[in-house]
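Because discrete structure vocabularies remain unfamiliar, we first show an illustrative case, written as a sequence plus integers encoding its fold.
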Amino acid sequence: MDSASQKSEWMPKLAAHALEHGITGLSLRPLARAAGTSDRMLIYHFGNKEQLIADLLAFIAADLTQNLTTALPPGPSTSRVACLTEVAGLMRNPAMRPYTQLWFDILAEAARGQSAHAQTSAAIMAGFVGWIRSRLPADDPDPEGCAAHLLVLVEGMVMMDAAGQPEVADAALAAYSG
């Protein structure tokens, strides 16, 4: 099996492990066990641990985006408020909690100065801005600015939920929907 095929076979197993256990203090041996291989084989196919983690996080971000896209009605939202309500509703759903917990792990590592996590988180955020932009109505006057704004609102709501303050997130959504 070539390297790309092998990586594709392992990624869902690696993602499931990361979503269950997070990435803080992640080591190769548990990942290898989850994938049904050895840590040496992971290094052989990915080059190093940093590349493995970067590829894994990109895979998980793409998986999340696909899950969100599938859960929403096809096509763009009818308005900015509808877009925010739809995306926030999905991201605040308890089924998304493993993704948000992993996201907080990534951000914590980036805040600690892990440049690979900072680069990966920047790429993930750029992807989500693009995804939200694609959900906005075609006639939105500032789709780039609005997508960034909505992403910040959703991120804040998810953070408030994680901090045990869902009423703050609800108030923000109500004020925006006003």
Notes: The longest helix spans residues 49-71. The two ends are 56 Å apart (CA to CA). DSSP finds nine helices and no strands in the chain. The chain has a mean pLDDT of 92.
